[in-house]
Every structure is written in structure tokens, then in C-alpha cells.
Amino acid sequence: MKLFLDTAEIDEIRTVNAWGVLDGVTTNPTLFSKIKGKTYDEVLQEICAINKGPVSAEVVADDVDGMLKEGRHFAKLADNIYVKVAMSENGLEAMNRFRAEGIKTNCTLIFSANQGLLAAKAGASLLSPFVGRLDDINEEGMNVIRELVEIITIHEIEAEVLTASVRHPRHVTDAALAGSHIATLPFKVFQQMVHHPLTDKGIVQFKSDWETARAAIAANAKG
Ligand code: E4P
Asked: What is the pTM of this model?
């Protein structure tokens, strides 16, 4: 399963990219609103220069012409831009038009397998069901991932399922087991995946035992 970072923070992207585990980046207007002193275009160009995987740039217009205008602009910023379009009737039309122009899209705000199926048929390359927001309203977000992955597999559809709105490491494991092609994670979840209490405790113990052994060798050498 490919792992994307769900952020517009350049430092976070540099960090995870340096670990060698970063396959792409997703941004959205909320994530961009946390960045100070840069335009969205500047942020996107910086991200695309750091990581060559898909970088999602979200349109905010709700009419087709507005979506097309914003999306065409983003697509010119870098070769690895995927235009992120929210699921809606106009969104479907815009994704269909982008497909005809060879512009890749990521359909966002998907909350059912049927929405994912429609987005795939309209030409979206990436289908983003939001698992955390479904869990928040007492639904089982991962069910949408399971259903959509099965539909994509049975019907040999080219689009990839991108598990979004990930809140914790268990979501990542479950998405991988469900066959999701991609999951996009906040920086914090990447960090949580690295750590385990027994790993961290083990590192401290090995270091301390090493120091003890070195001290004993130094004492013996002194005679
Ligand atoms: C995905 O592309 C979205 O940016 C993101 O995963 C939304 O997550 P949230 O529900 O934590 O805002």
C-alpha cells in the first residue's frame, strides 16, 4: 500500500520523504489555511519539488467552469499534480472533462461505495473515502474501503482507492488489510507508526548496557 502525507507543512514532508517511505501528498483548503506567508501555488510547487509522487491540489469552485479553471491552473504547476475535486454532480462533470484533457484527478469527500463507483466512471484516478469522519458519526468508515476495493477489483476498474481522514495507526493497518491501494496520513500518524513502547524501551536498555560494558572494559584496561 502506498503511503501519502496529508499535510501542507513543508518540514513534515521533508522529514517523511527522508525516511524513504513517502509516495505522495494530499492537501486541502483546511490544511493550507494553517500555512502562513505563502500562496497555495508556492506551497504546491515546493511539495512537488520534494516528492515526485502524486500531489493533490483541491479546487474550491462549485461550478464546472470554475473547477476547470482552477484545475487547469494547478495542472500547469507541476507534472505530478492531481486535481482534487469534491464529489458532486458538477464535480463528476469536471472530472470527466479533466480526463478528456489528460489531467489526473482525486475525487474527495467520498462517503459511500456508490459515490466511489461514480467517481471512477467519471474518470477519477484516485477515490478518497473519508474513514475518520464516518467513524465520528458512529458509522464504520472502513466498510466503505472494503466495499469499494471489492468493486474496483471485481470490475477491473483502473482507479485506486485512497483511504483518507485517517486518525490513528489502526486505520492504516485495516486499510492495508482491506486492500486499499493508498492511505493518506497526518504526520502524527506516521510518527505513531514508527514507535512502539517496547522498541523505545529496548533502545534505552541497549544503550545503557553498552555503556556499562564499555566502562567495564575501560576499568579492566587500567588494571
Ligand atoms: C484527504 O485527502 C483529506 O485531506 C483528509 O484526509 C481529510 O481528513 P480529516 O477528516 O482529518 O480532515
From this structure: 0.95
Of 2, 52, 84, 188, the active-site residue reads 84
Q: Which of these, 92, 56, 91, lies nearest to 74 by C-alpha position? A: 56
**How many domains, the chain?**
1
Ligand 1 touching residue 7 (CB < 6 A):
no
- Whether 130 is in the pocket of ligand 1, judged by its Cβ within 6 Å, is yes
Helix axes 40-50, 64-77, angle to 10 degrees: 50
- Residue 67 in any domain: the answer is yes
Active site residue 84: yes
Q: Is residue 142 part of a domain?
A: yes
pLDDT along the chain (223 residues), means of 10: 98 98 97 96 98 98 98 98 98 98 98 98 98 98 98 97 98 98 98 97 97 94 85
Cα 129 to ligand 1 centre (Å): 9
Measured from the Cα of 56, ligand 1's closest atom is: 2
183 within 8 A of 3, measured Cβ to Cβ: yes
